[in-house]
Design brief:
The chain is an alpha/beta fold. It has a single domain, classed as Alpha/Beta hydrolase fold, catalytic domain (Rossmann fold, 3-Layer(aba) Sandwich), CATH 3.40.50. The protein is built from ten helices and ten strands. Strands 3-4-6-5-7-8-9-10 form an eight-stranded mixed sheet, sandwiched between helices. The chain has a two-stranded antiparallel sheet with strand order 1-2. Helix 6 crosses helix 7. It is globular and about 55 Å long.
């Protein structure tokens, strides 16, 4: 089970050090820092998150898909919908959205819980237990439609999520047609019938040491994709890492695998959304 220290057993992890001069320059908006350094430092992550715009997207039938939006410098940009971990929409996920905007994407980080982010495992579990799956699905579908029609977008939309959000990235792609789906160690237990709605390619990043999102689950997903006639739409990458390996604040963080997964993900998104 994940907590703020990581996912599973603890391991020592050297801190990511940002020199004071670079830290001050980043806070003033004068320089960009590596994403891992920003996510590791709560103050830097909060500063990055604070540069985003709060957005509320109406949901047909009532309610709203709330979250934060970051825009790129250029118009006619691809759009991505980011889905948070079980902690909720915290500064880390907002900072990742801001980084995607810097790289040329219209980036919307959704808040499926509509609540303050959790800081303990118990709090996160409470958020998950209170989630209305039908309402969450409607919010994701509304967000995809909104991004597809965004005035700064090019009409293409992808989804990406981590852990809890990885599974919901896939759910979003089943609820509304998207052009690309990225899953970081998320629940992919789906039947062929459920996957029939999928219209775009899927990229999965998984850890060989993950005890829950494991080889058996992913193999079942691959088989179901094949049964649905969508085997050629799926690309799976395995890393010698554990659950949460792409989160710099996790005890299971793996810098090398995170960098490789980031590069593969960015290439995949650009290829399918440009």
């Amino acid at each position: 089970m994940c907590d703020l220290d990581g996912c599973g057993a603890h391991k020592k992890m050297p801190p990511i050090v940002v020199p004071d001069a670079e830290r001050r320059a980043f806070l003033k908006g004068l320089i960009a820092l590596p994403l891992a350094a920003v996510l590791f430092d709560p103050l830097l992550a909060r500063a990055q998150a604070g540069r985003m715009e709060t957005v509320s997207i109406p949901v047909p039938g009532g309610g709203a898909a709330n979250g934060t939006l970051a825009l790129p410098e250029a118009d006619n940009a691809p759009a991505i919908l980011l889905v948070h971990e079980w902690w909720g929409l915290n500064d880390q996920i907002k900072a990742v959205a801001a980084e995607y905007a810097r790289l040329g994407f219209v980036a919307f980080a959704i808040d499926l819980f509509d609540a303050e982010p959790a800081t303990t495992a118990e709090g996160a579990m409470s958020l998950i237990r209170g989630l209305d799956s039908s309402a969450a699905t409607a919010k994701l579908a509304a967000a995809v439609a909104w991004l597809r029609d965004h005035e700064r977008g090019n009409g293409k939309v992808g989804t990406i999520g981590w852990c809890f959000g990885g599974g919901w990235s896939l759910n979003a792609s089943l609820a509304a047609p998207v052009d690309a789906t990225v899953i970081y160690y998320g629940n992919v237990k789906k039947s062929a019938a459920e996957l029939a709605a999928l219209q775009g390619p899927v990229l999965g990043n998984f850890g060989t040491l993950d005890g829950n999102i494991n080889q058996a689950m992913v193999s079942g997903f691959e088989a179901a994709m094949g049964e649905a006639g969508k085997a050629d739409m799926l690309t799976v990458h395995w890393y010698e890492a554990d659950h949460g390996f792409a989160n710099p604040t996790s005890a299971r963080y793996d810098a090398e695998d995170t960098s490789l997964a980031w590069d593969r993900t960015l290439e995949f998104l650009r290829e399918n959304l440009s």
